[in-house]
Amino acid sequence: MSLLTSASRQSRRVEQAHFFMPERLHGESGSKARWLAWLLGLPLCAALGGATNYGWHLLHNEPVEQRVEVPHPTELPFKLLPQDYEFVTEPLPEADPVQDLVIDQPALPPVADKPVVPDAVDTDLRSSLEKRFMQAVNDTVQANTPAVPVQSTASPDATPLGALPPRISQQVPAMKYGAHVYSSIPANRTININGRDYHEGDEVVSGVVLLRIAPETSIFRVGSQSFSLNALTDWQGY
């Protein structure tokens, strides 16, 4: 409204100035005055018309309000927890003890092609094989060992066990001669009596001491009497 009032007052002032202009304006000076009045009046009229149009629209056009409504509330992808929410934790389950895996091995099938040998035959065969093996070992040792003077097996103080008087031979228990190993190194010499290995100086049976191991015989002592026994020869005793 203030714009309309200002424009109206300005237009009236221009009209009054033009209406009461003295007659001396006529002629050349009057022509310039008219042109000046037109130049000032046209922009003023345009401004007055624009202000009038703006005021009319401002008074008669109410602002349009658009209301947007959501048809349904939007659901959140997560659930809000209350502030006093309490977390309850539980202990982890205990692992089951690992049990040892037991695999039963299948029983091996009996060997059908192995002949059944009686105990007596098996013992004789083993004894024969041991004698052959020991003989081969002795032959190899003698072939690889340089010739050294060997004491005679018929030592003057070593009588064969079978030639001893009965009162002395009865003191010698039964001996099963299982193996005989002779070496140029005394520490490596050994014989097997009744299933056990003995070296020089050992007591082979009760009261019988092994004195020396010769290439083919062994010298023993019972009491104060020494005697000899051929290698791999068993003594049955009394």
TrEMBL record:
Sequence ranges of Polar residues compositional bias: 144-156
Domain Type II secretion system protein GspB C-terminal: 172-231
InterPro entries: GspB_C (IPR032389)
Disordered: region residues: 144-164
GO cellular component terms listed in the entry, alphabetical order: type II protein secretion system complex
UniProt-recorded name of the protein: General secretion pathway protein B
